[in-house]
Write a structure and sequence with these properties.
- The chain is built from three helices and two strands.
- It starts with 60 loop residues before the first helix and ends with a helix.
Length: 184
């Protein structure tokens, strides 16, 4: 126990209520502080209520400042980051388009080389345009029925005695007669 710092507990720490009060000289006998020397029948003094520690605020000024700086930084960087992401997406799209165009170029180059072959040109002329070479036989399927004959020949059309305009006038006269007969 040291007299300069006040009374101490057996643990060596100063008492919280005794440290701030001065001890009058001569009042300390030392016998009253010992537990064995306590007077019988006297209640032990209640421990002084501890001063509740001051609650720390939930948000300190530094925390608010830090959050504000983080938000400011996030807002500042949001625009450039968005532009960077859009640029990357555009680059990826352009790269994909370039790859597709390269494939299209390769296909067109192969088709150009294929069309340069005279055998391919002759085969396409036969298939698409029904061209035949001299000495070939042409068979044209019309309405699912095979028509045979020499290439370039048409079946004989029955010869009509009247010219086309007489047939036209005759069909108009027949229609007029049929309309007059139905109306009566």
């Amino acid at each position: 126990m040291s007299a300069g710092t006040g009374r101490r507990r057996s643990t060596g720490r100063p008492l919280s209520h005794a440290a701030s009060r001065p001890v009058p000289a001569g009042s300390r006998s030392g016998a009253g502080n010992r537990p064995a020397a306590a007077r019988p029948g006297r209640r032990t003094p209640r421990p002084a209520p501890r001063a509740t520690t001051a609650r720390r605020p939930l948000f300190t000024g530094r925390a608010v400042l830090l959050v504000g700086l983080v938000l400011l930084l996030a807002l500042t960087l949001a625009g450039p980051v968005r532009q960077w992401l859009e640029g990357r997406a555009e680059l990826a799209g352009l790269a994909a388009e370039g790859t597709a165009l390269d494939a299209r170029i390769a296909d067109l180059q192969a088709e150009l080389e294929r069309q340069a072959d005279p055998a391919w040109t002759a085969r396409q002329a036969r298939e698409r345009l029904a061209y035949v070479l001299p000495g070939d036989r042409l068979v044209v399927v019309v309405d699912g029925e095979a028509a045979e004959g020499d290439a370039g020949t048409l079946p004989d059309v029955p010869d009509t005695a009247q010219p086309w305009y007489d047939e036209l006038l005759g069909s108009v006269a027949e229609a007029d007669d049929a309309g007059a007969g139905a109306g009566e």
